[in-house]
Write a structure and sequence with these properties.
single chain, 368 residues, alpha/beta, Arc Repressor Mutant, subunit A, Rossmann fold, three-stranded antiparallel sheet, 13 helices, 8 strands
Length: 368
């Protein structure tokens, strides 16, 4: 995705799941035994963290019954297979104990160190430990060391041949494993480079490219909650983002993300939609009435996400949205940047505490 362009596009709260659960998925067979249990989580670590967060935030870290926990993470019923997959994944990562539709779920120390760490190093350590709690993930990580993974075809063949991952589960394994590595790297929670091991033949590892440069220290992720920023790219807007919005968003306790920082697979729109779903709150700078920004804003409202608005003049804010949280800044005023930064921090905190006031009325409430 290009870093610059005319106009714009552009961590853990996913759009609320709702409605009656669809027919549960049948469990694929493994090793010739029908219905054999999955030995790795079907959900990513980032997604599974929703479970310990709900226990910490909604129940003060005390044990929680599955029925209440299901509602806290966005499901109506504790027997919803999506919730059960999520809960089992949280157990497999060692974040909680207690699995099943009628379980009492307890927050484990590993989960607590991730959702409520005493310092950043506690979270980094706990994230890596949770990933390695899954024996299958640990073995594959040790096999490749710090080298980048090969292309999908070779990677999946290696998973099947070297690690006996069933063919009907290898796609999901590869997807979850890759997403987990990216999540760990965003927090700089990956181990340092290890000496290269001897390359076995026939695994697709020959002539692997060099690993990418490590993340710059000032862009290492700090927070689980993320704030997706929708604003134009280029010129002064990039400076506003780096010098005003990024510090202000972090001061509010969120990790800032902009569309030109997304490098996942899929189309630009798919990546933006995914990031909107993951974000707890969003910030939209509507200065200049950029068409791409308004398109993303429509997606955010469709996902029922709280959005804080900023603009260089009130006329850039649609009349029907001016009753929501709006910041108007004037670059001609003394100390305008400091004032804007302070207001962004304050408004984002308020949007998290009371999201309904940052969502238009037709999009509020539970989905039916």
């Amino acid at each position: 995705m290009p870093k610059k362009k005319t106009g714009t596009v552009t961590e853990t709260s996913t759009p609320k799941e709702s409605g009656k659960p669809k027919r549960p998925r049948t469990t694929p067979t493994s090793g010739g035994k029908k219905g054999a249990a999955w030995t790795f989580p079907k959900e990513t670590l980032e997604s599974a963290i929703r479970v310990p967060r709900a226990i910490d935030e909604k129940h003060g870290g005390n044990p929680m019954n599955a029925a209440d926990l299901a509602k806290a993470v966005g499901f109506h019923q504790s027997n919803d297979w999506r919730f059960l997959d999520l809960l089992r994944a949280a157990n497999q990562y060692g974040l909680v104990s207690g699995s099943g539709a009628h379980a009492t779920v307890r927050l484990e120390k590993l989960g607590q160190d991730i959702v409520a760490p005493e310092d950043a190093s506690d979270r980094q350590r706990a994230l890596l430990e949770a990933f390695r709690k899954v024996e299958d993930f640990k073995k594959v990580e040790e096999f490749y060391g710090s080298k980048p993974l090969p292309e999908d075809e070779f990677f999946k063949n290696t998973l099947s041949r070297q690690f006996s991952v069933p063919r009907d589960r290898v796609d999901r394994f590869a997807e979850v494993f890759r997403e987990n590595l990216a999540f760990l790297m965003s927090f700089a929670a990956r181990p340092p480079k290890t000496p290269p091991r001897e390359k076995p033949s026939g695994t697709g590892e020959e002539a692997l490219p060099e690993p990418p440069e490590p993340l710059k220290e000032d862009r290492v992720r700090r927070f689980l909650d993320s704030c997706f920023v929708m604003m134009p790219f280029g010129e002064w807007f990039d400076k506003y983002y780096q010098q005003i919005y990024v510090p202000a968003i972090r001061a509010a306790g969120f990790e800032p993300v902009r569309a030109d920082e997304l490098f996942n697979t899929g189309t630009v729109v798919e990546q933006i939609w995914e990031q909107i779903g993951k974000s707890t709150v969003l910030l939209a700078d509507l200065t200049g009435k950029n068409a791409n920004v308004f398109y993303e804003l429509g997606l955010a409202h469709a996902a029922r996400k709280p959005v804080v608005f900023a603009a260089g003049q009130i006329d850039d804010i649609p009349f029907d949205l001016r009753h929501l949280r709006v910041i108007v800044y004037d670059v001609r005023e003394p100390q305008w940047a400091a004032t804007l930064s302070r207001q962004v921090t304050e408004f984002l905190k308020n949007a998290k505490a009371d999201p309904a006031k940052s969502i238009p009325q037709p999009f509020r409430g539970d989905q039916e």
